[in-house]
Amino acid sequence: MCVMQTLIKECLKGVPPEVEVVARDEGLSPRQAARAITRGRITVAANPRRPHRLSAIGEGCRIKVNVNIGTSGERCDPALEIRKAQAALENGADTLMDLSTGGDLPAMRKAILALDVPVGTVPIYEAVRRAGNAAEVTSDLLFNVIREHCRQGVDFLTLHCGVNQAAFSALRLDPRVMGVVSRGGAFHVAMMAATGEENPLYSEYDYLLEILSEADVVASLGDGMRPGCLYDAERLAKVTEYVTLGGLAKRALAAGVQRFIEGPGHMPLDQVGYNVQMLKEVSDGAPLYLLGPLVTDVAPGYDHVVGAMGFAVAAMHGADFFCMVSPAEHLALPDIDDIVEGTRVAKITAHAGDIVRFGAGAHARADLKMAEARRRLNWEEQFKAAMYGEHARTIHERDGDLETCSMCGDLCAVKMVRDILGEREK
Amino acid sequence: MCVMQTLIKECLKGVPPEVEVVARDEGLSPRQAARAITRGRITVAANPRRPHRLSAIGEGCRIKVNVNIGTSGERCDPALEIRKAQAALENGADTLMDLSTGGDLPAMRKAILALDVPVGTVPIYEAVRRAGNAAEVTSDLLFNVIREHCRQGVDFLTLHCGVNQAAFSALRLDPRVMGVVSRGGAFHVAMMAATGEENPLYSEYDYLLEILSEADVVASLGDGMRPGCLYDAERLAKVTEYVTLGGLAKRALAAGVQRFIEGPGHMPLDQVGYNVQMLKEVSDGAPLYLLGPLVTDVAPGYDHVVGAMGFAVAAMHGADFFCMVSPAEHLALPDIDDIVEGTRVAKITAHAGDIVRFGAGAHARADLKMAEARRRLNWEEQFKAAMYGEHARTIHERDGDLETCSMCGDLCAVKMVRDILGEREK
Predict the structure, then answer these.
(1) Residue of A nearest to B307 (CA)
(2) B137 touches chain A (CB under 8 A)
(3) What is the ipTM of this complex?
(4) Of A255, A294, A361, A389, which is least surrounded by CB within 10 A?
(5) Between 3.20.20.540, 3.40.30.10, 3.40.50.2000, 3.60.21.10, what CATH number should domain B61-358 receive?
């Protein structure tokens, strides 16, 4: 097998072209970006087999948004999933994950991989499909699927390496209402329960790292034990997995394999900050990919907003990468409208986080542009400055073509005080 | 004029019946609630002229949500505004404010006051309407309107007492892009600019307190200087007004007049916490009523979500009362759908905040109920446990009547691990 150089190893010697590109995008110096990659603080998922638009994730980079698409056994329409993927990209998704479990999985993946975006997958899903059920999945089968995904051009793989016997014991010692809500996590629990053996992704982690190193594919260290409800947030399985993932992140870096860490899950607002800090601590500041956090369980249909609240606090504490939550979360496979709404809300949250991350930089300047347009009551400029301007235009124009807006009309405060104070003095 | 006892004064002597009611609602002891009212930590807006459902706001109480309705010159359909008010109440609004500026203002107010809910108004709007423009408003006219609102049964009045010459100077010393975005604030600036005199609500504050004390009506100390964009958040006008409002809150309490403080506005996520703390500090922990905070300027059409992020952080730091932000904010007068969406999102945020405020209390138990229903895959129970269950049902049922959901189908993680671990051990 031809042993390739991983991006980390190339960065130890100089600045590879991929890093030049992402450094420019992020406003970092190329050497600074390369150094952050070698220290495992920035991850660039870029399978060398498949050139595409790049997205750097981590320290000093804009917060990125992933959108999940994919068929299920109950709703399997590959063409629809591709349209969803396109809708996600049109609304600003930085990466896509194909979570398909229904239909022709390699064909579905091929179609997603034809898009110009970093793509992630969860190999255990396909291993279970092929074996018939989780209990029948062998380590050989799983590693073969992982190799196939790497060869096909997938950029990052969610690998539930932390769902090990220690986490399983914690789950029994300190029971949770929702058990396991990660589909991949549940598959690994089922494998361990059936065989009594260790999760091969954990026991054969060095071998896994060899595969990933050879293919230069990124490990997304999966949070199979993420809490599925507020009550479960303080149970031991979660932190047991944190500690494991931290150690695995260090081992990956030492092996020259790029990785990020997946984080929870459901938890109250006031736990989000320290959970982010804890994950950053155990992993030496590895890029953090958040699923949630969902800060209440009782708002199905509005979980995109519930996620925005959790993301916002997580962003303040250093989270780097958000997995979009759609309004259909907990209820159904999202449709295109759900994908659009969820992607927009996640991107808006990421922007609000970037304002904190970068202070009075480029992101704050985008907001200042909007303020200036509002001061001038220039609607066209406002729609241009808006993240989703056509949506804003639709709302504004439903009451006709007004200089002010139908909220205050002639009693517009901005207009009144602008006339008193005159043009802005500075 | 018949001098009535204010609720604060009654609480100094015992526990009035209104306080018995709200204490029961909030799970507080009646004496504890009465004491918190006398210390100005809880406000109960309950105009004695108009009995209605009560809502306590402040320390130890659930976070409450206000919804603004009202006509404008450009869109004046009183029947529609009443339907909006009803939609807000059906979705959980705790209070309403009538911000009408178009049409027959007393008639509109009468219709809102017929609803079973605490109602707030902004008397300066009507004063300006009657005078023709802000520069013509006299202090006599303004105080007359205030008295009329009190007599008509309004429970709380937004009074921009902090928009004084000091704030006006700060505005000139440290200019802002958006100037003044509070409509009431702008009116007072216009009055001061025209006359060169002090804002009568500030210079004649003792007289104002007499009126409010006689009527036992609550002062909502308005934040006329709230920043209207992220850039303006760090300008001096905002904190100048904070300091003034803190002093006025103390004077109101000393006069036996209940009050809460209105807070900003637009600001980055990481400024929300200390702004809330600062407002609580200067006002000796007065209940805090937040307009926003909006944590980015560039998401018109999604400002309900932007508000949810700001509210979430504010809730963690002690904010008590949220003013709903609708998706039409900055663009148009909200329609019924906007009111429904904005009210739901605000109520969900308030619930997420209550979970932090009350720890493992009643609010966390509501979430646990949902988790238990999810574990059992009992959809009817889930819809019952959900804040907006019929909306959730619509999404779930679009793919037919499934035991699991169309997201994972047979590969439901919860089902899988539940079968492995057996029923919950505790």
Answers:
(1) A309
(2) no
(3) 0.96
(4) A361
(5) 3.20.20.540
